[in-house]
Amino acid sequence: MRLLTVNVVEELIPGPKEDALGWTAIDKRPQTGRVAVGELGLVGDRVCDTKHHGGLDQALYAYAQEDADWWATELDREIPAGLFGENLRTEELDITNALIGEVWRIGAEVEVMVRVPRIPCITFAHRMQIPGWVKRFHQAGRPGAYLKVLTTGTIGAGDPIKILERPDHEVTIGDVFGDQNPVKMKAMLDSGVDLTDELRGIALRVIARAG
């Protein structure tokens, strides 16, 4: 398992919104050398819509090369690193089946925690210019994951990725993005794993609906 690219915003580009948030930082490009990682993400990166993106629980967005390859075949086009707005393009790491709360070490210093799946938005749809993209992305079940930075440092292309901890439950990124099983959700809550407020709320609603 390794890091293929580290991607930082190239330039702000027009987004879908005709207001003060009319710009987006989704245009990420691979960087050479090592990039510093702080609690809020990569040094030199940007977030425009801070109401819906960024923050400690969305400091980094990781997407697997294997999923990008699947999309390349599906769409009959290349999916270069950063096209989906991801900060990290990984190899041989099954992000869809990563557990909520799982901890990775990237390189020698940086440690991150898997938090929640990426939910496709109108900015992503505008970026791709594919009719029905939000629905299509959701149905594919390959969302990638947002990460929280636990230990800062530097990372670079080629760094190994090691899974340090896996919590005692079975809820994966794919489960949260798709089939939200109430039994699994309850086990996740009971495990005591650190959850975002939003995910805790989702789990409680799923359990309540199940009766």
From TrEMBL:
A GO MF label: catalytic activity
Alphabetical list of Gene3D superfamilies matching this protein: PK beta-barrel domain-like
One Pfam family named in its UniProt record: MOSC
Domain of life from the UniProt record: Bacteria
InterPro entries: Benzoxazolinone_Detox_Enz, MoCF_Sase_C, Pyrv_Knase-like_insert_dom_sf
Domain MOSC: 29-164
Designated name of the protein: MOSC domain-containing protein YiiM
